[in-house]
Amino acid sequence: MKLGAIYLQDRCVVPRVWHAVSAWERTRGLLGRPQLQPGEGMMIDACRLVHTVGMRYPLDLAFLDHTGRVRKLLHGVRPARLAGSLRAERTLELAPGTLAALNLQPGDVLTWRENGTERGA
User: Fold this and answer.
1) What's the domain count of the chain?
2) How many CB atoms lie within 10 A of CB 103?
3) Which residue of 21, 45, 68, 85 pairs with 121 in a disulfide if CB–CB is 3.0 to 4.6 A?
4) CB-CB neighbours of 119 under 10 Å
5) What is the rounded CA–CA span in Å between residue 105 and residue 90?
6) pLDDT tens digits for 15-73?
7) Contact 82, 107 (CB under 8 A)
8) Angle at the Cα of 76 (from 46 to 60), degrees rounded to 5?
9) In this structure, is residue 86 part of a structural domain?
10) Which ranges in 1-121 belong to alpha helices (H)?
11) Single pTM value for the model
12) Cα(18)–Cα(1) distance, rounded to whole angstroms?
């Protein structure tokens, strides 16, 4: 799993984001991992639908298209729920309260950066 950050324009908005790319990483996601802290997240590629079955804590979710454009935002999704967006290509999972603190809006474009590289979130 790769570690990087999420940017909105030139401003780092989530400094510590794990990027789940492989089938195993995407399947496992945050299951069995400690609760995300402020400033942390997990981005899951090829993911239009997530579940919080087996989770012990709520999540904020941002569904992004292939360009990194925010298509849908959900605040405080509780355990044992399903959520998704048919227009999404990936999902950014965040600590509860992060979306409100960042004031993210549908249409914002997020960028993933790892080790000085840049590509659409």
Assistant:
1) 1
2) 9
3) 68
4) 10
5) 16
6) 999 998 888 778 777 777 888 999 999 999 999 999 998 889 999 999 999 999 999 99
7) no
8) 35
9) yes
10) 23-28, 98-102
11) 0.90
12) 6
